[in-house]
Amino acid sequence: MPLVTLIGEKLAKKDEEFIYIGPNNECRNCKLKTVCFNLKPGRKYRITNIRDKRHNCNVHEGTAAVVEVQDLPITIAIDSKLSEIVANEPWRELRSERNGRLAASDWSQVADAPVDKAAWATYRQALRDLPANTTDPLNPVWPELP
Q1: pTM of the full predicted structure?
Q2: Which terminus has fewer CB within 10 Å in the chain: N or C?
């Protein structure tokens, strides 16, 4: 069964979309107010059919048309900052893992560490360069431990 409401005759156009803002106080004494007030405030609707029936209406400059409407899906706009954060999450995770590997190899750079310092310095530089040298942050190519 279609959802039926009233809308000003001048606004009643098939496929027209509108957002129902809620009951109008001027309508409180109207005998047809329950037909107008049966929509959900803040929701978007599309007019799917215009019936031949008209009613006198003080709010809509003369007459209101009986229309069938379709409840449209709710869409939301994602804040651009949130969108940016979500898009950058794989890069943040890559840098976090990279920073952990750098911290785990800090010991190799102390003066008395019994290791090939040049090899470890090369490894650590490759870790630092990893974000710039990676095209897919979900599948980075990690440098080999010396």
Answers
A1: 0.50
A2: N
